[in-house]
Structures are given as structure tokens and as C-alpha cells.
Amino acid sequence: MKLVVILLYCWLPFVASAQETLTLDWIDLIPKKERQLFDQQGMPFVDHENNQAALQKRMGSVRPELDGSTVRIPGFVIPLEGDENTITEFLLVPYFGACIHVPPPPPNQIVYVKFPKGAPVQQLWDVVYVVGKLNVQTIEHELAETGYLLQGTLIEEYDDAG
């Protein structure tokens, strides 16, 4: 019996920490050794002297240690799949207009979200938190390439207090 109790006490902290939700900022999706390539909003530094059309910069890598983590991350929604009432797939981006009005952020700054139960459309016009299981996975979409996939389970109202 003592062995069972000892094993339970040793095992319980691992179970509790495995289910802990990490609240991430966009900079957290960039490996620390590469953060000097990005500004504080997580965007690559721009060369304003270049006259070429602005395309998605495929720079920076992802953080494989986040794979499988339950996370909570704020962002703006770009709807991809759903109907007039709910959205089941969307891109989560760090700033308004990303991928639509301006060039897409780098892949490590875009999260492809699958939300099977559907998120109410009216809840998604402002910045929101999306909670779910994060996977490091490249997804090619006509709007942009993404570096992460999030299996969304919850949409929360954004509160800048964190």
C-alpha cells in the first residue's frame, strides 16, 4: 500500500503539469536564438528600400518543444471554413489585416486552427484567445503557409491583463 501511495505522489505532479495550459504571446512561437530577426510584434524587419511586391517571408523556424502542448494564445481570426453561423477552420494571426490587407507574417507567426464544434461568427471580429492542443505542423494554404496547427477547444474573450 505504501508503494502505491508513494507512486501516486510521484506521478501526480506530472499529470497536473501535463494538463497545464500555457498562455503564449506571439514572440513565444519564435525560437529565442532567432528573435533578433523580428520586431516586438513578431514581424520580420522590413527592407523599405526594396521595390518588390511584399510576399510572405519564409524565415525563422518553429519551436518543436511546444508540440503537443495545451496553449492559450491571443489573435485575430481569418475565417477559412464554416457557414454563416459558425467557423470551423481559421488562421489565427497576431495583428488585424494580416494575410488580407498586408503580406502574411512568417509561418511561425500564423496558426492554422481547426475548431470542429464551430466557433460563433459574432465572437470572432475582435481579438480573442484560442485554447487547444498545439502541434508543430506546416500547412500550405492559398493565403499563407503556417508553422503551427491548433486543435481548438475554446474561444475566450480577450483581456489584455492576461
Summarize the structure.
The chain has 162 residues and is mainly beta. It has 1 helix and 6 strands, in the order H-E-E-E-E-E-E.
What does this molecule look like?
The chain is mostly beta strands. The chain is built from one helix and six strands. A five-stranded mixed β-barrel has the order 2-3-4-6-5. A hairpin with a 3-residue loop joins strand 2 (70-82) and strand 3 (86-93). It is globular, with a radius of gyration of 18 Å. It starts with a helix and ends in a 5-residue tail after the last strand. Mean pLDDT is 81; it is low at 3-17.
Give a topology summary.
Blueprint: H1 2-18, E1 22-23, E2 70-82, E3 86-93, E4 111-120, E5 128-140, E6 145-157
Parallel strand pairs: 1-2, 4-6
Antiparallel strand pairs: 2-3, 2-5, 3-4, 5-6
Distance between the termini: 43 Å
Write down the secondary-structure element order. HEEEEEE
Low-confidence sequence ranges: 3-17
Q: Radius of gyration in whole Å, from Cα?
A: 18 Å
Q: Could you describe the largest sheet, including whether it forms a barrel? A: 5 strands, mixed, barrel
User: Strand arrangement, largest sheet?
Assistant: 2-3-4-6-5
The number of distinct β-strands equals: 6
Shape category: globular
User: Treating each run of at least 4 consecutive H or I residues as one helix, how many helices?
Assistant: 1
Approximate helicity band: 10-25%
Provide the structure class.
Answer: mainly beta
Taking all residues together, what is the mean pLDDT? 81
Strand content: 35-45%
